[in-house]
From TrEMBL:
It comes from the Bacteria. The chain holds residues 353 to 827 of 926 of the full protein. The gene is infB. It comes from Gordonibacter pamelaeae. This is Translation initiation factor IF-2. GTP binds at residues 83-90, 129-133, 183-186. Keywords: Cytoplasm, GTP-binding, Initiation factor, Nucleotide-binding, Protein biosynthesis.
Amino acid sequence: QGTTVAKFAELIGVPPNDVIKRLFMLGQVLTLTQSMGDDLVELIADDMGRKVRVVSPEEEYAVVYHDKDEDLKPRPPVVTVMGHVDHGKTSLLDAIRDTGVAAGEAGGITQHIGASVVEIDGKQITFIDTPGHEAFTAMRARGAQVTDVIVLVVAADDGVMPQTVEAINHAKAAEVPIVVAVNKIDKPGANPDRVRQELVEYGVIPEEWGGTNMFVEVSAKQRLHIDDVLETIILQADVLELKANPDAEASGFVIEANLDKGRGPVATVLVQRGTLHPGDIVVAGTSYGRVRALVNPLGKHVDEAYPADPVEILGLNSVPVAGDEFRVFDDERDARKLAEERALRARLAEQETKSHVSLDDLFSRIEEGKQTDLNLIVKADVQGSIEALRDAFEKMDQSEVRINIVHSAVGGITETDVTLASASDAIIIGFNVRPTGKSKVQAEKEKVDIRLYRVIYQAIEEINAARVGLLSPDI
Ligand code: GDP
């Protein structure tokens, strides 16, 4: 995007007129306020004996947060509930939310925004509402570290199960402490001690047995000992001495986002540092915008969101993705620049990895309605083979997929053929010819399917088979 002539002159410390003269000598007539492209910036700087490097907005706006100790204030814990399916994660969260609402703002009804806040003895706990491991793993894969404590739900009548172990492994990998909620103690077959014993094998050891894990026995269904769960989380959080700087521009992660019919793009973010206000300019992944309103989990508009607060942001220009980082910017142009560059790069990356059609996935593509034409590039040793193939294709039933020969020629498969195939989403058919030069490597890189045959009928048969496979079995 470059910079203006005036700004460039200032940056490299030369009189603006000198820059204009240089530009003029290169055939570029620009005024002070006009913009020089990146190429021109590098060229002129080099010409004037300055070394400049044009950095991407991503680099330009990269930040490392560093807070002085005295700026750090205690903050509430953020908790995720995990455990095997049907062990009671959802029930426990519901029970906790009910308890919490009673203790929280009067008259509030918890909205499903992806996170909720409860209070116990005047202390806040934030729960990420999406139970399960996928959400957690997906967030972690994107570098988002949002959880301080994991509540591991284990049904007392069922014990340690595969997803229990998985949750333990996730918690360990993320170095997040585990509080165990032994659930369903109301059930006749409940055996909490067996759960303790089984967990020891996986390194989750109760405090009373000399370990570091706090255990609570609960019944989510009968609302038994729900307060204990909350108190235990607070105890665990106290050990962690969680802190954050509230007096900074806000940053954190997107927990959930969607397009709301009435309100437009809505993102629930978890503030991790600083304080977020309406009117702030925010970048979240590839989205940006000025915060029109902040809505808390009780559906109320708020004027600020502090560290560990989940809050809905209204006013973004598009819907970000869960796990995206969000950050407040001073300048709307900077925010837009960064968001747009990210969006552009995301689109490029998507195009790069988009694989082209192959005979193997031809029918699944047609079934999905993604493929109505099959483009072919035919290379052969003699012209006669090309003609024979063309005739055979013309006789084929083309009602489901139209076969187009976008290019045919005598000779080996070249890099140009691969480029053409990539551009036109075509399969390359070779008769008694081979890929030459680097075309094979290039085809692998660009995910272009090359099929080599020695006999014509074999080629026809294979393409027919792929095509016949498209027909649904009931026809
Ligand atoms: P999730 O898959 O881990 O979210 O589990 P759910 O919360 O959906 O619970 C699975 C089933 O167990 C549901 O039928 C619940 O009613 C039942 N359940 C959950 N907690 C308890 C409990 O404390 N006692 C009893 N008896 N049943 C429970």
